[in-house]
Design brief:
By secondary structure, this protein is of the alpha/beta class. It has 8 helices and 13 strands. Helix 1 (17-21) links the parallel strand 1 (2-7) and strand 2.
């Protein structure tokens, strides 16, 4: 068995005892690992890693025993207050300097790929959040258009997706990002198995064209913005648990409440 947990919107210090009891082999995220950079570090300190150090210090036993592979959200890059309108200076460090300094991740670190060959699964992290702010001083994501580094990198990875289970993680609203570049992102996503985002403050499973989209959040009792193809939605603090059974050749995906209750479960046949 391989167990991979995913969390997002890590606000405050939620009790993660139920997640720890699931004994995940890897803990991943779908963005927003910290509230912001500037409140702790002061304004315009893109290199300051203190918020990440405080996160690790809050869960010493968990981080000591569980490999951690985070994905970026806009809060992981915020170096100034956002304000009611785009200011003169950039509010976000698009390059994610502090995140890349603190964590040791594969590839470019702001985007990464991680394969587990024994279970025939590939995890891919992308840098999507607040995509409507591209081109303004509110921009937080790397470019995702057709000729961008991120698009071409993901296109190449997904051209090699057949024959394995592929899990794509990011922090944007799935209904928005999949329509970008004339729907090209959705077509690339469809070559994989599931997508997981931490956009909304709720738990959701949506189904479109044979692809399952998940939205998860440790801070899960906010206003829901349902996917047009939503099949399950819960206003509960939640996380995702993926269990890979090599003998049965299945991937079981559960949205679980922060207390450990299974809110939604779906079993996928793994690619042989």
């Amino acid at each position: 068995m391989l167990r991979v947990a995913v969390v997002a919107n890590w606000q405050g210090k939620p009790d993660l005892a139920a997640l720890v009891a699931d004994d995940p082999h890897i803990l991943m995220t779908a963005g927003d690992n910290i509230p912001d950079i500037y409140p702790v570090c002061g304004p315009n300190r893109p290199e300051c890693i203190l918020p990440y150090a405080k996160l690790v210090d809050a869960y010493p036993e968990m981080f000591r025993s569980t490999p951690f592979m985070p994905v970026l959200g806009n809060h992981d890059k915020q170096i100034l207050p956002r304000g009611p309108a785009p200011p003169e200076e950039p509010v976000y460090d698009v390059s994610a300097m502090a995140f890349r300094r603190f964590f040791a991740l594969p590839d470019a670190e702001w985007k990464w790929r991680f394969d587990v060959p024994a279970f025939n699964v590939r995890f891919i992290a992308l840098d999507f959040h607040h995509i409507s702010d591209q081109g303004t001083t509110w921009q937080s994501s790397h470019d995702f258009h057709e000729e961008s580094e991120q698009f071409l990198w993901y296109k190449e990875l997904m051209a090699d997706a057949s024959g394995r289970t592929v899990v794509t993680l990011y922090n944007a609203r799935s209904a928005s990002i999949r329509n970008q570049v004339g729907g090209a992102w959705h077509e690339m996503f469809r070559k994989g198995t599931i997508c997981v985002t931490g956009f909304g403050h709720y738990g959701e499973r949506a189904e479109m064209d044979g692809l399952t989209y998940y939205d998860i959040s440790l801070h899960g009792k906010g206003t829901p913005y349902p996917d047009p193809h939503s099949e399950f939605l819960a206003r509960e603090h939640n996380y995702l648990l993926m269990t890979f059974d090599r003998a049965a050749r299945t991937m079981t995906v559960e949205i679980k409440s922060i207390a450990g209750e299974v809110l939604d479960r779906k079993v996928f046949g793994q690619v042989e």
